[in-house]
């Protein structure tokens, strides 16, 4: 059996007249279903952002607004312009035109999150909250759930850690084109100023089990059922976000408009759509397996070099508070002092093979949003040390949280090695400054 000459035909019900149901997409959908069992949101972060970021608003109380856009060019390190799809937070001026990656969403554990999502233009979009465990209607997995023009997602996070959100409509393309952002679940009191802490700065806390690592001060054990918001957490003084990505410029050239990779509707949408009429001639753009990146970035910053090179980004690079849920000082290039606890959050958004190497021992405290050794999983895993110079292999969509603490000065680099996903050929070695002084 082949795609062009199948041995049998699977009958499918047309979606005509049922566009609002939970079915495979209709291009474009005529409506989005209402959010079932809509609860009152309790997320304090949008109000905090409105109160601390100049010009920011909170149009819908306690609600994070995210608009998914398309058709924006970014200038790469060599002056070349490439098309990207952007995510915008319309409540924040710095995100009015979108950003790459999308704005970092931070949220305290246990609050009711509402995310009002709007897909600009056509085709439609979704948001999948990767690693969160919402109801099926709020999971945002394209093709198996509805694909929204406008929808209010709701969920309640139960585990402190590192996650991310991304469009799941045409996942391979939309994710690669930039429709994603980082998602951080923090302790329940992270945005509560009642104890006098600076909720928009550092130190902050994250989940960890460091009972066997006394060199990290401030760790609180206990149990999660105690009601202590800091149970099984550790404070950190410096936070860095490394979003590792690669870009295939040929994909941009072949997809010269937003509909390029979407089917032409037949007279029975969802049954006899034509998936090939939009092919751009000899390119045959639907061969998504043909992926050969030629640009490489970390948290939206270009590694300024061609294939085969070893290059560095600048020191002192940070993520603006307006794009980090109001929290100032999140770093890309690491700049810390001796005897400070440094948390590096890594997200592999690349399709290539990736190896991350640190110039100093690091302690891995979490994988994919779950803290190692923290109940209820403490019987099955524990934090572990990765020695300096030993590569950490990462794959697409994986997250990794590591802690660093040094009583010695250091001026070196973390390194990200990109290798081709099929041939294993070396592509680029990107260096990120790490300075402890």
Largest sheet: 8 strands, mixed
Approximately what portion of the residues adopt beta-strand conformation? 25-35%
Helix content: under 10%
Question: What is the radius of gyration computed over CA atoms, rounded to a whole number of angstroms?
Answer: 22 Å
Show unreliable segments.
21-28
Order of helices and strands: HEEEEEEEEEHEEEEHEEEEEEEEEEEEE
CATH architecture of the largest domain: Sandwich
The CA-CA distance between the termini, in Å, is 64 Å
Mean pLDDT: 87
- The number of distinct helices, counting runs of at least 4 residues, comes to 3
Q: Provide the CATH superfamily of the largest domain.
A: Cupredoxins -  blue copper proteins
Secondary structure: number of strands: 26
What structural category arises from helix and sheet content?
mainly beta
* Count of discrete structural domains: 2
């Amino acid at each position: 059996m082949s795609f062009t000459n199948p041995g049998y035909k699977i009958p499918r019900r047309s979606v005509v007249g049922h566009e609002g149901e939970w079915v495979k997409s209709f291009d474009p959908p005529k409506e989005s279903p209402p959010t079932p069992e809509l609860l009152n949101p309790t997320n304090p972060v949008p109000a905090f952002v409105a109160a601390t970021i100049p010009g920011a608003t909170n149009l819908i109380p306690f609600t994070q607004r995210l608009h998914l856009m398309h058709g924006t060019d970014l200038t790469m390190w060599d002056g070349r312009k490439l098309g990207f799809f952007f995510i915008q937070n319309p409540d924040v001026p710095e995100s009015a035109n979108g950003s790459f990656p999308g704005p970092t969403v931070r949220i305290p554990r246990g609050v009711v999150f509402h995310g009002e999502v709007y897909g600009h233009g056509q085709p439609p979009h979704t948001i999948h909250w990767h690693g969160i465990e919402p109801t099926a209607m709020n999971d945002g997995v394209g093709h198996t759930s509805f694909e929204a023009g406008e929808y209010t997602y709701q969920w309640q996070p139960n585990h402190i850690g590192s996650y991310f959100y991304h469009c799941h409509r045409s996942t391979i393309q939309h994710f690669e084109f930039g429709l994603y952002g980082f998602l951080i679940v923090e302790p329940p009191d992270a945005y509560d100023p009642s104890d006098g802490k600076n909720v928009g700065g550092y130190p902050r806390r994250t989940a960890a089990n460091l009972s066997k690592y006394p060199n990290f001060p401030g760790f609180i054990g206990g149990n999660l059922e105690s009601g202590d918001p800091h149970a099984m957490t550790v404070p950190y003084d410096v936070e860095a976000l490394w979003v590792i990505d690669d870009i295939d410029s040929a994909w941009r050239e072949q997809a010269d408009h937003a509909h390029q990779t979407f089917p032409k509707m037949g007279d029975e949408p969802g049954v006899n759509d034509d998936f090939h009429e939009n092919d751009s001639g000899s390119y045959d753009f639907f061969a998504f397996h043909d992926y050969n990146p030629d640009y490489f970035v970390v948290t939206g910053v270009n590694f300024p070099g061609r294939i085969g090179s070893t290059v560095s980004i600048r020191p002192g690079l940070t993520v603006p508070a307006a794009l980090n849920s109001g929290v100032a000082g999140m770093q890309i290039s690491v700049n810390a002092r001796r005897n400070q606890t440094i948390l590096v959050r890594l997200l592999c958004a690349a399709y290539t093979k990736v190896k991350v190497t640190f110039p100093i021992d690091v302690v891995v405290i979490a994988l994919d949003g779950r803290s190692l050794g923290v109940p209820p999983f403490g019987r099955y895993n524990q934090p572990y040390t990765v020695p300096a110079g030993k590569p950490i292999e990462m794959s697409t969509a994986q997250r990794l949280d590591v802690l660093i603490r040094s009583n010695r000065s250091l001026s070196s680099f973390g390194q990200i090695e990109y290798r081709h996903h099929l041939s294993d050929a070396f592509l680029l070695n990107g260096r990120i400054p790490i300075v402890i002084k």
